[in-house]
Design brief:
single chain; about 70 residues; mainly alpha; 3 helices; flat
Length: about 70
């Protein structure tokens, strides 16, 4: 899920590092779509960690395309 840059900036480095390690531990057949750092304008966010309906209209096709590419 996209996160607003102000939210991402407050995530401690040890949490980000831990998350990266967890992604690395996953089965190589697992698909991880990490859009946390997707640069979206403020107008597409409801709040710091949720996109609004307009944001969903932009974001959803990205995820669909990514998943179709994985098949």
């Amino acid at each position: 899920t996209p996160l607003h840059e102000s939210y991402r900036a407050r995530i401690p480095e040890e949490i980000r590092t831990g998350l990266r390690h967890e992604f690395e531990r996953l089965d190589s057949n697992a698909t991880v779509l990490n859009y946390g750092a997707l640069p979206l304008p403020d107008s597409l966010f409801l709040n710091a960690d949720h996109i609004n309906a307009d944001g969903a209209a932009v974001f959803t096709p990205m995820v669909v395309q990514e998943l179709q590419t994985e098949e």
